[in-house]
Design a protein that fits this description.
Strand content: over 45%
Shape: elongated
Order of helices and strands: EEHE
Largest sheet: 3 strands, antiparallel
Structural class: alpha+beta
Number of helices: 1
Strand order of the largest sheet: 2-1-3
């Protein structure tokens, strides 16, 4: 069985002027490696992909992410 690393990111959606529109927490689980930083980097890339794919759903022009929790 492959161990997993989980991360919760807060995604803040912004309009074109950088003004807050909405936010959402997004959980990402990746295969754990011997390098926790690499696991977090992989999770961060997945959250960025999710945020970019959901810009129009939130009516946003940009987004910011921040790590909330790692488990």
């Amino acid at each position: 069985m492959v161990e997993k690393s989980g991360f919760t990111y807060k995604v803040t959606f912004l309009d074109e002027d950088g003004i807050f529109m909405d936010s959402d927490n997004h959980d990402v689980v990746v295969d754990a490696t011997e390098h926790p930083e690499a696991d977090q980097d992989e999770a961060g890339m997945l959250v960025n992909d999710w945020a970019e794919a959901n810009l129009s759903a939130y009516g946003a022009g940009d987004y910011e992410t921040s790590l909330v929790d790692a488990y």
